[in-house]
Structure formats: structure tokens, C-alpha cells
Design goal:
Distance between the termini: 23 Å
Number of helices: 4
Strand order of the largest sheet: 1-3-2
Number of strands: 3
Radius of gyration: 13 Å
Order of helices and strands: EHHEEHH
Mean pLDDT: 82
Helix content: 40-55%
Number of domains: 1
């Protein structure tokens, strides 16, 4: 991973705000290996590594530029949320 000095965990509300994806959409994408996996932080909390989420967002921007007619994107436009 190239962002070693930026290693911090993001919690669910932060990941939701950054990606624009619902929990169920993230779960499905994570299960399919198309979204960064969450890490167990304690018995009752999970988080995602910030650099992995940032990288995922960048890949969505690339997908949009390469193929704006991507059927997955048409079904769920939130996959392109980058704001």
C-alpha cells in the first residue's frame, strides 16, 4: 500500500458519507470482492482503512471515464459517488 503514513480507520458513517453507498450495497460489493473489506477493531466495532477507501473511490472515477454505460453503474449510480 502506497499511503503508509495515512493509515487511519474510517467508521461506518464516514465511509457512507465518502462513498454515498448504503450499508447493504457496501456489504454486497465487499462480499463480491469489489469493495475494501472491513476490519474488526474491537468486539463491537469495525472500520475500513482510509487509503483503501480512497483508492476504491479513484477506481470508480476511472470506470466512469472509461465506460459511462457500465451496466453496474446504471443499476446503482451511487457507485460513482465521489464527493
Amino acid at each position: 500500500m502506497q499511503h503508509q503514513n495515512n493509515l487511519k480507520f474510517l467508521r461506518e458513517p464516514q465511509v457512507s458519507a465518502l462513498t454515498g453507498l448504503s450499508k447493504s450495497t457496501r456489504w454486497r460489493l465487499e462480499k463480491d470482492g469489489r469493495f475494501p473489506r472491513k476490519r474488526q477493531l474491537s468486539a463491537k466495532s469495525v472500520g475500513w482503512l482510509a487509503p483503501e477507501i480512497e483508492e476504491w473511490i479513484q477506481t470508480r472515477v476511472i470506470v466512469k471515464k472509461e465506460d459511462p454505460n457500465d451496466t453496474e453503474v446504471k443499476k446503482n449510480p451511487n457507485l460513482l459517488a465521489c464527493n
